User: What shape does this take?
Amino acid sequence: MEIKQTALAGTLESSDIQIMLSEGSDGIHFDLTSDVKKQFGDDIMATIKDVLAAYDIEKANVKVIDKGALTPVIKARAITVAQRALDLKDQPNWEVL
Amino acid sequence: MVEAIKDLYLSSPPVKRQWENFLKKRGIDDFASQETASIDQTIGLFDEQDQLVGTGSIAGQTIKYIAVEDDAHAASGARFNQVVSALENRLAEQGCFHLFVFTKPKYQAAFEHVGFKTLAKTDYGLILEKGTPNIDSYRQGLKQRPATAKTVAAIVMNANPFTKGHRYLVEKAARENDWVYVFVVNQDVSLFTTKERTDLVREGTKDLTNVAVENGGDYMVSYLSFPAYFVKDQDQAIAYQTALDASLFKEQLAKPLGIQKRYVGTEPLSHTTALYNEALKNILPPEVLVEEVPRLKASGSDQVVSATEVRQKIKEEQVNDLAQLVPESTFDFIKENQKRLQERILKGQQINGN
Assistant: This one.
């Protein structure tokens, strides 16, 4: 699906993650800032990629500031940002959950 | 520990006093009206005892007046991050995903830690940005120079409006270089609107095939990098801002785009612009040379051609005198829109600034 608008979800507080999703030209591009990038960077990006795939988002720029979020938190923030970017806020996609 | 973010309404004098005292204790003491007037909203972070322990403000898309009380128990920076993300979420709700911050060098790391990227840095301060679109997408949106172009130059102009003096400067740069970027100041606070100014520069240079006319965006002589260009300010503030603007140009534009020279006109008339030229000469070399070109004089006179004079003539309804000051395209535009321009002046548009 095409991204309709840039969207932001999450915060910069400890154990949270902030994700900004905006229109991209080809593929999914990540810009990840995290203190644990070395250890968990790939996992964080894979988690977000899975959520985006479930929404059929193929082209996007994803800016991520991770503050040590656990996988369920990352997933929840990714779902929120995808719903906002696709302007589907009031039609939750239960199957993704 | 539960700490809550609340709105601070600075229009209420006790709230404003509390806010000022909090900031003063943390070394922020400039509450000049031109600084505070631009604030759109202010938030406060309160602890369980309802004590103010952090604050931050938004002015347009800039984060300002941010300070937090250090908490010995919590992880360092937790409050800072909480305030920054609350401000970001508020901007996001308004559909603004691109923000800036000016700060002192010692806070660079704190902002970089929450995803800001440094655009320019001087000894006194720095500008950081976060979000999208950003400087990278701005650069990608610029017209690419042909691969054969070896010497690249740039000119930044407000062109309010485009005169024969501007034309002379562009022509000289185009003659001496393979490729020339002309960046038109984006801030829409001049007699001629940004669109009108840009169109007139395009129109007035369209015969020069190696010239690309671009909008300067937020990055060149904008309210952001150089507010004193538009608002009268003290020399100290001007020096600080011109240095930031010059180093932003050098780091984010000249270096990545391969610009080797920046052309400027000598500035006998405007004090601010003269200081700006000085800053460029201090900061850009040796990587980027500054070519200061003596200003074009009007035919049969000793006066330099200046857009200020053009605007004066429009005000005085002596439009026919303009033929010797501006190129045909600008002249035609002014004749056609004379009424509208005069209305703008009557409505209070300043014409004696830049």
